[in-house]
Structure formats: C-alpha cells, structure tokens
Design a protein that fits this description.
11 helices; single chain; mainly alpha
Length: about 300
C-alpha cells in the first residue's frame, strides 16, 4: 500500500496538473457570466503545441534550447518529493524541503537564463523583474517551511505535513494559519497570478513571466506551459499539506482530501483573479514583504510554542 501511494502521488500530479488551469478558467468565466472553455482545453492546447515546429532566433544558443526540458525535468523530479496526502514519497528524505526549494529556484534560473540568451531587452526586462521578485519570495518560502519544521520536529515534507492534525491546529493554530497565508502569497507570486502578475496580459509595462517566454514556440512552449501547470499543482499541494489537517486520516482518505484541496485552491485562485485587479508594479514588493513578515511571525509563534 505504501509503494502504491508513493507511485500514485506523482502520477496524479503529472496527469491532473493541466486540469487546474481549466478549473481556473471556468471559475473566471463563471464570474464574468460566460460559459467558458471546456475543463480539458489545456490538454488540447498542449497537444496542439507538441505537433508544431519550434522556431529559434539566430541570436540564441544552446542555453535557450536547454531551458524548457531542463525546467520540466526539475519539476518532474519535484513531483517525487512533494507529498499529496501520503506519508512518504519516492525521493523523500530528511531535509528534502531544502531540495524542493532549490529545484524551484533551478526552474527560475533556467527561465531567466533563456530570456537573457535571446538578447532581447524586452525579455531581459521580464528576467530582471522575475529575479527581483524571487529574491523576496524565496525567504518567505524558506521561513514558512522552517516554521513547519519547528512545529513538527522533522525536516522531511511528508513527516511535516503528517504532523498537521486537528489537535495540532488547536495547539498551534495561529502559527499554521500564518504559514498558510504565507504559502498562499508565495503560490500567487511563483505562478505569476493576479495580483502579482496577469498570465493573460500582453502589456509591455506589466508583464513578468509571459515576457520571458515570448520567443518559445512549439514543443518548447508546450514544456513551459505544462511546467507552469505542474508548478501550480506542486505549490498547491504544499499549501494544502500545511493547512489541511489530514494527519489523523488513513493514506487513501488523506490523498483524496489533498486532491480535493488542490482543486479548491484552483477555485480560490480563479476567484481572486475575478475579484481583484493586478497590483501596481511598485506595490508587488510590499505584498512579498508582507509574506516574509507573516512567515517570520509564524516562526516566532512556533518557537514560543
């Protein structure tokens, strides 16, 4: 049963990740009074891109071609580390939370390197913004995970999330709530969602993530789009693991609750994007500083507990 759960967790992420984008689009369509795209539209889009040819600029090098598969490989590796209601993962070990955070950083590194490799000042602008905002997002993520590690007494993600029980919420509810709020902001920032960025915009002065991948096409762009869906799934799983008290449930029930929680996060993301406008660029750092402050406060509460 343990091995089946360990194999099923990454398979669910690989198969269902694009469906999160479909859920977000349908929620936004609901708020706009439209019927919206089919839930499986992201799968059709990925299939269409995979059957197109890739076009490369003469100014790009092997760095640009390496970036999409390298990003996807890092995220696929991350699916073997981040738990989804399970008590163990295929690559789980003591301290795997550090590897998970640095795999996310590796994805960002390759995207920024590929954007700079195009020799485009436009994409360089997006790479600069991405690097600046990530310097504020990463401390919030690390401190929030440190607070979770202090509350659970473990440095492994599955064991940390297994310690989130109703009793733990009753004892350390304030710290867990602050961790959940921090991870929610990190999720929006890392996935370039409103209010940090608008994934559907093409305005030069507001683009962050989308501007870095404008030169990608065909299968390369499919890898990036699919990687974005995987990243959304994985960070949603981290948020659900930190907030949902599944520690007292059996593994099948915990996994089912975690999958439901991940899709609930997608509904919440779609609701936020429907009810809020994108923040001004100068206000985004304030939001990320807020996430850092919440994470530090959660760590203080965990130390006092």
């Amino acid at each position: 049963m343990k091995l089946v759960a360990e194999i099923l967790q990454p398979l669910l992420a690989i198969v269902l990740a694009p469906l999160l984008l479909g859920v977000i689009n349908r929620v936004k369509a609901f708020f706009a009074g439209r019927h919206g795209q089919p839930f499986v539209q992201p799968y059709y889009d990925l299939w269409r891109l995979l059957h197109k040819g890739a076009v490369y600029s003469r100014s790009t090098s092997w760095v640009f071609r390496l970036s999409p598969p390298a990003c996807l490989a890092a995220l696929l590796t991350l699916t073997l580390i981040v738990p989804l209601g399970g008590r163990s993962t295929l690559l789980g070990f003591e301290g795997d939370l550090v590897l998970a955070a640095y795999l996310l950083a590796l994805v960002r590194f390759f995207l920024v390197a590929a954007a700079l490799d195009t020799a485009s000042s436009f994409e360089g602008m997006g790479a600069s913004r991405e690097a600046f905002f990530s310097a504020l997002t990463e401390p919030a993520l690390f401190v929030a995970l440190a607070a979770m590690a202090r509350l659970s007494g473990r440095l492994s993600l599955p064991e940390m999330f297994a310690a989130v029980t109703p009793g733990n919420w009753a004892t350390h509810g304030a710290a867990l709530l602050l961790v959940a709020a921090t991870l929610a902001i990190v999720l929006l920032a890392e996935n370039s969602r409103i209010p940090v960025d608008d994934p559907n915009t093409h305005l030069e002065l507001t683009m962050i993530h989308e501007v870095m991948v404008l030169d990608n096409s065909g299968p390369d762009f499919a890898f990036i789009q699919y990687g974005s869906a995987l990243k959304l799934w994985l960070l949603s799983a981290v948020l659900v693991g930190a907030a949902l008290p599944t520690g007292g449930l059996s593994t099948p029930l915990a996994m089912a609750a975690a999958v439901g929680g991940v899709f609930l996060v997608a509904v919440c993301v779609g609701t936020v994007e429907s009810c809020m406008a994108r923040l001004r660029m100068t206000h985004v750092p304030l939001l990320l500083f807020t996430a850092v402050a919440l994470a530090v406060l959660a760590l203080v509460f965990s130390l006092r507990g």
